[in-house]
Amino acid sequence: MTISKVLIAVDKTATAFKAAKLGFSLAESLKQAEVLLIHVIDPVWTIGDPDSGLFPEQASAKLRIETEDFLNQLIEMFGKNVKAFHVVLEGKIVTEIVQTAKNYDADILVLGVHPKTGFSRLFMEDVVKEISPLVSCPVLLAYDKE
Q1: What is the CATH number of the domain that holds 138?
Q2: How far apart are CA 54 and CA 60, in angstroms?
Q3: Structural domain boundaries, residue 136
Q4: What sign does the dihedral 141-24-107-90 (CA atoms) show?
Q5: What φ, ψ does residue 140 adopt, rounded to 5°?
Q6: Which family does it belong to (predicted)?
Q7: Across the chain, what does the average pLDDT equal?
Q8: CB 120 within 8 Å of CB 87
Q9: How many domains, in total, are found in the chain?
Q10: What is the pLDDT of residues 93-124, one digit of tens each?
Q11: Nearest residue to 74 via CA among 142, 2, 4, 145
């Protein structure tokens, strides 16, 4: 199996740095591999706060700009020697990651996993469990050991 397309899906936590570092290191070691770095904005995060004057459209635009900056930062930190692109998507996290892996024809998918407790841990485990059987490429997990 030749790996020429690495898809890295990140959230905006410390784990994103581990996933990006792992994915970009893998791509760099493979010489000809390129990276697509993605972040999915769940519509729930763009509700805004109308009481303070921040409406959904504004919240979405603000979050998109912050996310673009974050992805650019990851590429600057870890992807200097790799052909890299980034995309900010909006929708259901699992659906968007699976669809992007298919459309991009990813050879490997890198995900960050943080061993939290409670709801966030269950949420991340569910995302990984849902994605793994739906993609046709191997899934590499970057764990954040707290």
Answers
A1: 3.40.50.620
A2: 10
A3: 5-143
A4: positive
A5: -105, 125
A6: Belongs to the universal stress protein A family.
A7: 86
A8: no
A9: 1
A10: 999 999 999 999 999 999 988 665 544 444 45
A11: 142
